[in-house]
Amino acid sequence: SVSPGMLPLCRRLMVWSTAPRQSPGLPLAPCRAFSNNKIMVELDESSGVATMKFKSPPVNSLSLDFLTEFCISLEKLENNWACRGVIITSAIPKIFSSGLDITEMCGKSTEHYAEFWRAVQEMWLRLYGSNMVTVAAVNGSSPAGGCLIALSCDYRIMVENPKFSIGLNEAQLGIVAPFWFKDTFVNVVGHRVAESSLQLGSLHPAPKAHRFGLVDELVPEEKLQEKTGAVMAQWLALPDHARQLTKSMMRKAVLDRLVAHREEDIQNFISFISKESIQKSLRMYMEMLKKKKG
Amino acid sequence: SVSPGMLPLCRRLMVWSTAPRQSPGLPLAPCRAFSNNKIMVELDESSGVATMKFKSPPVNSLSLDFLTEFCISLEKLENNWACRGVIITSAIPKIFSSGLDITEMCGKSTEHYAEFWRAVQEMWLRLYGSNMVTVAAVNGSSPAGGCLIALSCDYRIMVENPKFSIGLNEAQLGIVAPFWFKDTFVNVVGHRVAESSLQLGSLHPAPKAHRFGLVDELVPEEKLQEKTGAVMAQWLALPDHARQLTKSMMRKAVLDRLVAHREEDIQNFISFISKESIQKSLRMYMEMLKKKKG
Amino acid sequence: SVSPGMLPLCRRLMVWSTAPRQSPGLPLAPCRAFSNNKIMVELDESSGVATMKFKSPPVNSLSLDFLTEFCISLEKLENNWACRGVIITSAIPKIFSSGLDITEMCGKSTEHYAEFWRAVQEMWLRLYGSNMVTVAAVNGSSPAGGCLIALSCDYRIMVENPKFSIGLNEAQLGIVAPFWFKDTFVNVVGHRVAESSLQLGSLHPAPKAHRFGLVDELVPEEKLQEKTGAVMAQWLALPDHARQLTKSMMRKAVLDRLVAHREEDIQNFISFISKESIQKSLRMYMEMLKKKKG
């Protein structure tokens, strides 16, 4: 059963550390590949590993529809006890995800901004707080929100192509990454690298990102699938219960901080994004993108 | 004078940052080597350096008796103003310490679990909060609680043998390192390495442990004593008072957190360890260890 | 208009994150080089970059006069909307700054200690919390308070001469770096390196300092100016507003902590520095310095 809206999803997540997910006494639930518009999901029940492939051309941007589908897919897997791990990757060549869809933040109503931002929060709460093992197979560039998705996984493997870059480059667009993007980033790369990278809006080529730990491993593109599978198998060799409690212990402080300031964070986003100067700078950025394509 | 129980030890520790330890006006207290059952202690009064050698065969596991003796030995040294630094090492080949003694956590009473866990806490509070310079000379493998002892020292030197490994591998046994193990670990290796190592229960070979800072230095086995002495001399060249206040400033937040949640942490341990599923997994682990030996 | 005392400066700083600094609608304020006794300041209005050169022989020590002039210069630049970035460097060969002036801490009145310490705090609050891009061009040794100035900038470039060293070496003088020196240090190099470096009072030669991130980049002395200019240009390519909000998000927790404990921190300093044992050790240190020179 899939929750249609965001609120029920959210409520379920908040109790994730106490509610047991696995019910090994029940018979295997039938579970096949399911695909909506924007994300392809396949679950291999023998290994317990699902693969989520972003396929929302041209650049897997995180629109409200995409985020909603992402959350629903994650919830389905989280509630399916046959699934213990998720690999997140892209079906679009050269791009993992381009991040938040700027059209959702431009010229829309306050209500729309609120709904959109709540969906962004929801996606992060669900992914960063997932009980499953999450591995990002970053097979293309991954700016801003795309980078956040990778940062929220347990492990990041990236194709070693130096043309692929990754980073939280919000500052380059004149906008500011919210505090929970920052907290997630600091947990991965430490304070110093996060501080300069966020201020400069740096997009780091894969080799450099690997040097300071933003990605854990680099592989040639043709080895990505094999390597990702091997890493996932290594993580799944551990007993779920101890691993999940450990993950919760590591991430709880940062998750709780957003949960405690969620409405305030939405209001901040709305008042920031509604400013005429910000709207103007986003419109200019979109114009530039269009010209690039044309 | 040696305190027989744990509570007086604990009370003394909590005032360590205000009570001056040194009384240079008093005559030299007589102090020779003392040895109980499980730990050999030698104090060189000319240098002010004590050496504690774990000698509890077969693997220096941290039983209640071992922990009690460890705490008493530390307290004796802490209160002896002729002692300014402690080197912690093993008298058993190939093993530094195998960590908490599993037999203390299996099939025992609630009261026993409480007493045992309080002793583990006491050991850490005393070692991590010690006013003395503490150097771990890790001359063998050092899993779980053994790793915690090394992490709690000021500096870690390990024999460069890649067969010796170190790490908090609790997750591999289906149990969870408590938050203060985690805090100590994060302070040494940072959030990212701690997160994946704790979830995977990783035991890192010495060279890898050195690469990400879990140990500060690697040396050939035959150079360990010389190197440890040189490092200790370097630390003792600093005035005690400034060094102690600095150490307290760095570690106080993490120490205070356990002191504030000590009873809660004991109750958590008891309710976790009393679960039949955990008991079963610990029994299986002990069976496996017995078969390995046999 | 320059505030004569410290309190008005301080009040202004506390609202820095809400009060907009730039008023692009106003005509360009006339701004040329200004120089007081101890610091030379030049503003290039075409690039928006000011250069502050310490020129207080023999070693740019941070006396009360120096700190006051430093704060006033920073405030002038901060309030001049034609200035967007500041390069901090030394006009004295081989030394960036020797840190706090020990004569200000020796044999003076309680009132003097309070005034001096308030000025040290003020300098850090102003520099670490600056809205401008701040780059340290470290062209000489930089112990203690000199290191703090470098740590408080956004980016540190150091001359690659291994004879130049940098670090918070307070412990070597028998004194203790205050918590906000420590917080700033941990934000740059992480907890482990900060803990051992602070306890040992380590002064790291430039190459080693670079290895663990205490400085971001090393260059030959003759390339320092060119490189510093290039880095500054890279930072100024970002829109000010987003960069400033990001910087504030990264540094606010640590800044707020001193603001909240400022008077307490002054009292701590006074009672520590007034101890006869500390006074004696500072007098001995000054004697040693005099003999070295003589």
Automatic annotation (TrEMBL), chains A, B, C:
Lipid metabolism keyword on record: yes
Pfam families in alphabetical order: ECH_1
Domain of life: Eukaryota
Subcellular location: Mitochondrion matrix
GO BP: fatty acid beta-oxidation
PROSITE patterns the record matches: ENOYL_COA_HYDRATASE
EC top class, as a word: isomerase
Principal localisation: mitochondrion
Complex formation: Homotrimer.
Stated name of the protein: Enoyl-CoA delta isomerase 1, mitochondrial
Species of the source: Cepphus grylle (Black guillemot)
